[in-house]
Design a protein that fits this description.
2 strands, 51% helix, two-stranded antiparallel sheet, globular, mainly alpha
């Protein structure tokens, strides 16, 4: 595809790499200095209204016990050829040792099949990016309760991954403002991997 070749060439251009690195450094510098507010860069600020996050701290061990986040991502990538989806899945695998992947694998999902976190229709489960995208945008919920909840930075990483996979639009500034330096590096690595097709 011509546009992919163009994107890969752009990603390899020193000026583009420098600009991306400068952006990440600038955001990281703001995070270290406190930026606009402490809550904007910490887990102190909830991603949803008070009271809506009850129970989000559940420990998940049933399906995923003993595997690292990266191993979970690789399990979910069997049969997935789309580089953008692969990078998005690896981003979730690298974030907090696979926090979202563990939730998706261990949680009983009451949504209709097309909105579930995982696509289990093939020989291997994979992340259902379209279903997650619809749920992030609050389309087709079964109840008035937000279907996906997490801390501000957890939600930002999930939104970035879902956008990287092509399932949702993204307010990049708001999402990046919620991340710490480690999370910013994970996002930068995922974007580079998706654009170049080369794993880090």
């Amino acid at each position: 595809m011509e546009w992919m070749d163009t994107l890969r060439e752009l990603a390899e251009t020193p000026g583009v790499q420098w600009a991306a690195e400068a952006l990440v450094r600038g955001i990281a510098r703001r995070v270290r200095r406190g930026g606009r507010s402490a809550a904007a860069h910490s887990e102190a600020g909830p991603a949803t209204a008070a009271g809506d996050t009850e129970g989000t701290e559940t420990v998940m061990t049933t399906v995923t016990g003993g595997k690292t986040g990266e191993e979970l991502a690789e399990d979910l990538l069997r049969g997935v050829g789309n580089e953008w989806m692969r990078a998005a899945t690896r981003l979730l695998g690298g974030h907090r040792d696979g926090y979202w992947l563990r939730r998706f694998l261990d949680k009983q999902d009451a949504q209709p099949e097309h909105l579930q976190f995982l696509d289990r229709s093939g020989t291997h489960p994979s992340v259902n990016w379209d279903g997650i995208g619809h749920r992030l945008m609050s389309e087709f919920p079964l109840t008035d309760t937000p279907p996906i909840q997490g801390s501000r930075s957890e939600m930002a990483v999930l939104r970035i991954a879902t956008s990287l996979a092509g399932a949702t639009p993204l307010n990049l500034q708001a999402s990046l403002d919620a991340l710490d330096e480690t999370e910013l590096r994970l996002v930068q690595r995922a974007i580079t991997e998706a654009a170049t097709g080369v794993e880090d």
